[in-house]
Amino acid sequence: MEYSKLVGVTGLPGLFELLSSKADGGVVRSLDDKSTKFVSTRIHQFSHLESIEVFTTADNVNLADVFTAMKESAETLPEEKDAAGIKAYFEKVFPTMDFERVYTSDMKKMIKWFGQLKSNNIEIVLSENTEIDNAGTESKPKIADTKAGVIKNAPAKKVNAPRKMV
């Protein structure tokens, strides 16, 4: 299982592996109980873990950077229900996090997701979908077409011209 195939689904707890996608939803497998099901995009939204960023006091960082700091830390993970302990944990592990804009519920979710990644032995590595711009810095990842496995730039929105009345 690859980190690049993992998604969070609104309204559903935990992380999921995106197995396939269609215009009206996707087939996902839960990391918790390994159950597979179809999730409709009419009801739920998908968030690829690679595309999630965390607010910091400087530039925003990718969620993978926070997970890497958590992995390298000697601190023990706090209990999910201890809000003060969670905040104290992240103040030690990732002190540049903007605690005014990152809510405790988000930090709880990060701890839960990190636990799922550890229990499933998933290596936290971003895919090579990032482009290097002229200044030598990485830009946002391109959108991946999950059916064809092709990386492409985000399509421009089409604007329909008004129809002529005859």
Q: What characteristics describe this protein?
A:
166 residues, 5-stranded antiparallel β-sheet, two-stranded antiparallel sheet
Summarize, please.
The protein has 166 residues and is of the alpha+beta class.
Write up what this structure looks like.
With 166 residues, the chain is of the alpha+beta class. It is built from three helices and eleven strands, in the order βββββββαααββββ. A five-stranded antiparallel β-sheet has the order 4-3-2-1-5, with no helix packed on it. Helix 2 crosses helix 3 (104-119). The longest helix has 16 residues, at 104-119.
What is the topology?
Elements: E1 6-9, E2 15-22, E3 25-30, E4 36-40, E5 46-48, E6 53-54, E7 61-62, H1 63-72, H2 83-93, H3 104-119, E8 130-132, E9 138-141, E10 143-145, E11 150-152
Antiparallel strand pairs: 1-2, 1-5, 2-3, 3-4, 6-7, 8-9, 10-11
Helix pairs in contact: 2-3
Global morphology: globular
Q: Total number of helical segments?
A: 3
For the biggest sheet, the summary is: 5 strands, antiparallel
Sequence of strands across the biggest β-sheet: 4-3-2-1-5
| Rg from alpha-carbon coordinates | 19 Å
Mean pLDDT: 82
